[in-house]
Structures are given as C-alpha cells and as structure tokens.
Amino acid sequence: MGEKCEFCEEIQRQHRESTYKTPTLSKTGKILLALSGGTALALTTICYSFVSPAFRKITLPYVPATPTQINNILKALEGRSGKLIDLGSGDGRI
Q1: What's the distance, CA 78 to chain centroid?
Q2: 6 φ, ψ (degrees, to nearest 5)
Q3: Residue 63: phi, psi to the nearest 5?
Q4: Averaged pLDDT score across all residues of the chain
C-alpha cells in the first residue's frame, strides 16, 4: 500500500516543474478598464445631483408661483418686445 505508481509520480513531477503564472492584463486591457471605470464614475457623479433629492427624509413641497410674483415678472418685462420663454425649474417657481 505504501508504494506509489509511476503515473502518480509523473504527475507530481510535472506539477513541480510547471511554471503557472497568473494571467495579467495587456496594455489595451488596462486602458479599457481605466476608461470604463472613469466613465462610470463620471456618470455617477453627474446623475447623483439629479437623484439625490429623492433620498431626503423630508422632500420639498410643490409651491406654485403666486400672482404677485407673476405680476412682478410681467412688470419687469413691460416695454420689451418678443416672446418670454420660461424654462422653469419644474417646481412651480418663476
């Protein structure tokens, strides 16, 4: 029972002699990894400012513009020609 077969000894010898190296990324792979990571970080940073208000415990209420505010805007535009385009912030303010 204590004897080893020739096949087992050959496998052990080959295992000792093998020089297994861990795979490494090529230069192109490193560049692509850096670009994709940078792009993901940039998109996350840009989108965070738009998404973060939704995570507040107390969100801001919708408060529409008052008639006084609208009259003040119209008074400031008096005497000007052309169209007024209110891009707005989407929360009812002028």
Answers
A1: 45
A2: -65, -35
A3: -125, 110
A4: 83
Question: How far apart (Å, rounded) are the C-alpha atoms in residues 44 and 63?
Answer: 29
- Given a cut of 60, whether residue 1 has pLDDT beyond it is no
Question: What string of DSSP letters covers 6-72?
Answer: HHHHHHHHHHHH---------HHHHHHHHHHHHHHHHHHHHHHHHHGGGG-SSPPPP-PPPHHHHHH
Q: Which amino acid is at 63?
A: V
From residue 11, alpha-carbon distances to 3, 15, 21, 22, 52 in Å are 15, 6, 19, 21, 59
């939704």: which residue's tokens? 54
- Nearest 10 degrees: CA dihedral of 11, 16, 22, 26? -100
d(CA 62, CA 53): 13
Which of 37, 35, 92 has its CA nearest to residue 60?
Answer: 92
| pLDDT, tens only, 50-60 | 888 778 888 77
